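Quick one, T. Sequence first:
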Amino acid sequence: MQKKLGDVANQLLFENEHVKVWKMDLAPGEASDFHEHTLPYVLCVVEGDTVDAEFENGKSMTIPVKPDQVYFVEPGSRETAVNRSQTRFREFLIELKR
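Structure tokens:
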């Protein structure tokens, strides 16, 4: 059975023909919607020390992060972001439409 897909982050802040800009804010113990990344994107970490990605195949991985880190990520993954740390996790996620 296929899981229902949700948004890639908590709040859509801006969208035009070039980009979509999202804010992700997860308190300790919170999780995002299960979502699919269909566009390449840039992650800009604001706060946090780790975030976990739980994939639909049941696998999980912990990603170490720190404020001011920026990542470029290719599309294709389907996951839930989970904050299992003791600190808030915040980032801006910029989806590139072109």
